[in-house]
Structure prediction request, 344 residues.
Amino acid sequence: MERATLKDIAAKAKVSITAVSRALNGYDDIGEETRNRIIEIARELNYQPNFAARSLVTQRSGVMGLFVLGRVKGEGFSHPFSGQIITGILDELTSSEYDLMVFSATRPPAEGEPSYLDLCRRRSVEGAFFMGLRLDDPWLPSLKSSSFPIAVLDMALMGRNTHSIGIDNVAGAYDAVRHLADLGHSRIGFINGYSEAMVSHERLQGYKAALLDRGLEYDPSLVALGDFTSEGAERALRELMQCADGVTAVFCASDLMATGAMKAASDMGLAIPRDLSIVGFDDIDLASVTNPPLTTVSQPRYELGETAGRVLVDACSGLKPPSRVLLKATLVVRGTTCPPCSGR
Prediction:
């Protein structure tokens, strides 16, 4: 069966093709009775708009792109942190009648390969979201000077058409470390992510600021990298406990790393929180069901995605959304923190 066209609808409704087009696109210069008749005939003929043809006229595809960089093979989008952000993006785009195209790139394009922006142009997306960008990505300058709207999550990358959406990592890390210091801990370790992540630098800044405000000296030997993985944090905690004296608390830059630190502590015979207090960051679903439940800094992940979606839709609609949006993170105190044991 051939696909119904505007011409078919016009012939059956006994109106012009222009009238059909304007009725189906919501213009108010078509009478209500005529509009309803056109819509009913379109349903009868199972008319489906030709979006490719429409985009040639409007220069708008109705499609946004998404790059999730650093994703390992087989991980999918069920990652405890990024999954809810993507859901927020999808819900906002759906309410604005946009579709989402996921690009397969998981790493920066190599020299001679199409750039991020080249890939976007080839697929005619109106704008693009980026998650997982690293500070050593060679394509950052081109994203900053993009000629079409870009929304970057968790990196302060701003330009004329480039918008940054994230949370206040400095304040979130500050609150976590201040909580530990106010409990009486003076030797507070920090398991950070990796140096190429901007959030790692921001959370280190918050860690240092809290120590300074509580009169505690910053000791680089108390900082280790866990690569934002549970396994990496296990190794990092063992290193900290073996190489640094008197550590009674550890702040981890992600909840996944906090769970790794908890496992390593248990393997070393340390009771949490009696022997070692631990604070995470993100408040993923797992955080509330660990044993004991994890004290952490809660990120509004769904709201992050929703806000990113709204910013990009506004930018593609010709509005002027802010170049940077920072949402607030909130400390959630549960069962993995307490004052230091007097015996340690």
Remarks:
- The mean pLDDT is 91.
